[in-house]
Design goal:
Blueprint: H1 3-20, H2 28-43, H3 53-56, H4 61-72, H5 82-99, H6 107-125, H7 157-177, H8 179-188
Helix pairs in contact: 1-2, 1-6, 1-7, 2-6, 5-6
């Protein structure tokens, strides 16, 4: 999938989770960082590509991206696996409490937001022709549906004209059909 498709799918997943399990109290700063973290999380699995938009956001990111591209050898290895997700979670559990003051930003919400972005990326890529090595290092790729020819091709017209707009429509539908939940959430923001 393209980065913009991953972004909207991650947002849709985060909003869906927020409606189904809304926080009782949350700060504006936490909401802001969680939204950014969600987008970053949706891009993290593609760190093995020099063209990843995430590298554009970092100082000297293009250089680091090229080095990372060489280190990973090929696209969709451990960064698209449960093992990669576990490593990311452990890293975030260590890093997030160190860099954010818990009086202003809730670390668990940030970690969850990034992990939702990461998970949505894996789910979305499982619908592509190549599938994902979910159980890496076991050389088995998971794809939905199981027959690769029935899956999407990254950047195809189906992704651009059907999937991307459908996810946007879902987000709008979710917000309008859950106005009370979102209103309550906005009231919980302090």
């Amino acid at each position: 999938m393209l980065a913009r498709t991953h972004d909207v799918i991650a947002l849709a997943a985060l909003l869906t989770l927020t409606v189904s399990a809304p926080p009782q109290q949350i700060t504006v700063a936490t909401v802001f960082v969680a939204l950014i973290g969600n987008v970053v999380g949706s891009l993290i699995p593609d760190i093995d590509e020099a063209s990843n938009r995430l590298w554009d956001l970092l100082p000297a990111g293009s250089v680091v991206g090229k080095v990372a591209d060489k280190l990973f050898f090929k696209h969709r290895t451990f960064s698209h696996s449960l093992f990669g997700g576990f490593l990311l979670y452990v890293f975030l559990s260590w890093l997030v409490p160190l860099i954010f003051n818990p009086e202003f930003i809730t670390p668990d919400v940030i970690i969850a937001s990034v992990m939702v972005g990461f998970g949505s990326h894996l789910l979305a890529d499982s619908f592509t022709r190549d599938g994902i090595p979910l159980f890496w290092p076991i050389p088995f790729r998971v794809g939905i549906p199981p027959i690769p020819v029935l899956r999407l091709r990254t950047g195809s017209w189906v992704e651009k004209v059907v999937v991307f707009p459908a996810v946007l429509v879902y987000i709008v539908w979710l917000i309008f059909s859950n106005q009370d939940s979102f209103r309550t959430l906005l009231q919980a923001v302090r």
